[in-house]
Amino acid sequence: MAQPTMDPAEALAELGRVRLDEVSLDDMLLRIAELAKASIPGTREVTVTLVRGRVGWTGAFTGELARQLDEWQYEEHRGPCLDASASGDTISVPDMATEERWPVWAGRARAAGVRSSLSIGLPIQGSVVGALNVYSDSVNAFDAPAITSAEGFGAYAAVALANAHLYENAATLAAQMQEAMRNRAVIEQAKGIIMGSRRCSSEEAFSLLSKISQDTNRKVRDVAESLVAQAVGKTHG
Description:
By secondary structure, the chain is of the alpha+beta class. It is built from 9 helices and 5 strands. The chain has a 5-stranded antiparallel beta sheet, with helices on both faces. Strand 1 and strand 2 form a beta hairpin. Helix 1 runs antiparallel to helix 2, helix 1 packs parallel to helix 6 and helix 7 packs across helix 9. The radius of gyration is 18 Å and the shape is globular.
């Protein structure tokens, strides 16, 4: 099980030293994810989910696998990070092998090497809510002291995020959301092309995009854009 490399109190102090007038909301989100990973016992990777209306996206992540675990939930419109965001509660998944609330997602997480998770609801600002999501490669990684530590960090992070949000204007947030939706749209287009040519499922199409992304060290969005562009070129050629 992963051991923290930073004392929780020091992580909070470090977060408190961030100058809100010198960092963007994205920078703050990433710093929160990094400090959570360093200070919460049992943690392998961390993400921060943001939700506005019915649109959810990952504002920061410490590893690609963790981001993908979030994305799978956004695709199905259900999962612990979304439920924690909506309710503001703490949601623990002690063992992916026995999880019954989100069995499909838990099965995919377990197959990817993740054994347990913890999602802490974050009321951020106005219509934006979110969650701090902590993933582990160990079963029952988050015991009562770890959950208490995560909730304490989450409460402090929520305040920091709310303050940072005030420094971001509505146009910037709207642009981020539009970009996220554009990214998802082009990925869905690419998945449709792969499904049509290979006669495979949506999950298999996304797995292929992810593999190409990893093999070529490119973002999934960039791989999807190239595939769509090629298909459009063939159509007009």
